[in-house]
# Entry
Amino acid sequence: MATPPLLSVKELSISFISNKSEKEIIHHISYDLFENEILGIVGESGSGKSVSSLALMGLLPPKISKVNNGHILFHSQDLTTLPAKQFQNIRGNEIAMIFQEPMSSLNPSMKCGKQVLEILLQHTSLSKTEAKTETLSLFEKVKLPLPERIYDAYPHEISGGQKQRVMIAMAIACKPKILIADEPTTALDVTVQKEIILLLKQLQQEEKMSIIFISHDLSLVSEIADRLLVMYQGNIVEQGIANEVFTAPKDTYTKALLQSKPSLDVRLKRLPTIKDVINDLVDSSIISAEDRKAFHKELYCKTPLLEVKNLNKTYVSKSGWFSKPEAFKAVNNVSFQLYEGETLGLVGESGCGKSTLSNAILLLDKASSGEIFYRGTDINKLSKKQVRALRKDIQIIFQDPFASLNPRMPIGKAIMEPMTVHNIGNSDKERKQLVLEILEKVGLTEESFYKYPHEFSGGQRQRVGIARAIALQPKLIVCDESVSALDISVQAQVLNLLNELKSNYNFTYIFISHDLAVVKYMSDQLLVMNKGQIEELDDADVIYNNPKREYTKKLIHAIPKGL
# Structure
């Protein structure tokens, strides 16, 4: 006799209500979750992954959403008809959730230990002393270093990976039957991501709980899940055993998700997007080793555009009135050359010095010592007026374009503003025409000129960020984690766009990312940083195929490769 499912979703439909009109966004989905299994749910933003999982927790916004059809059966109880008070006993106790962004889920004004303690005191009969002992035990279970220190630390005092572990400790505190992990590793380094995946797998085996693991990365999910669901536009388009779905996908959309991710084995001239795969328009042309060699031979015979020599950046921290100041070397004796038309990949874990190095090059944070030569001139010795002129030549595309755009300014005006400062175009009319041409180049419409940042999707906002950077006709662009938060297919579009712009305008990129597959695809040379120093610097393909240092081997080993 077959084991009955622990949770059964049957013909579930969910609508959202705005301006008295109703729009169905989840369409009659059905799936089961069995005891002691990990179910992966994969899909892009807007596919319905998170909304359907919030329904399991009874967390759908009450006034603007409703379940129009179907049932969610947990222990034969229909959660869709459960009163809010009864749901409180289930939420956190029987079904718990780990959210994507731990910093926004943790209370910044409350110590980490107290946040877990609060849950235990609310849902169990433990005394305060027993609850503290249990919290420290949970911190040990999720492999947090120095549990006592983390117990008394505020969220901002610990790293991203540690914050995510505190969130996991909170989620498993009451030994739930079901744990929902919603994009729990998206913004984490590849090594920390691997650790969290292994931790969840281990906890699941120890506690015999069931996990719903949600992500837009199919190869990542296939490493942890027993079974997979693929969602697209509110529908489940494919489901089955993880190994089978990953190695022999049946649905075109699933195939597209797999093909959109850069391969570690071959370098395509153009990454396929979801539309390309669905419309059978995939260009399978590759950049051969010979093509690459010929390009590099031409590239590296020129004079370097940028030369960094023995660069150091030291921060001094003073924790108390009478304590000695402590010096921390964020960048330690770094030297490299960058050539016009080249893409230099910059990788390493959080805190390795990537952003500090790029900030020094951008003159946003002055180096403590060393030299940065741009076109033969040491930019650390420039006057304020000269630095202002240099800003036009060296631009940055930020990780979060929404945070870097003024929410009250239409994007046309946001792009024109720095053009006015740097005297590009003779009049506003001419500048507007230039902006319209740039918007077209980055795949946005003329109407976009008048829209505000909130009216764009994440991928479109990233295109706005690119448009603003290239509007100044720069020579060097720093791409700081500029595709890390994007869906795989949108990421493919943005990477294709960056490569097209590089080819058309001879741009030079410093490409910073924690996604090593993306960095390998984009880079000519690769610079691996660790603890402020250069671990390895060589051709990207040479490093990936034959890493010399243990640290680089660890980074490459952590890349999700699927089953």
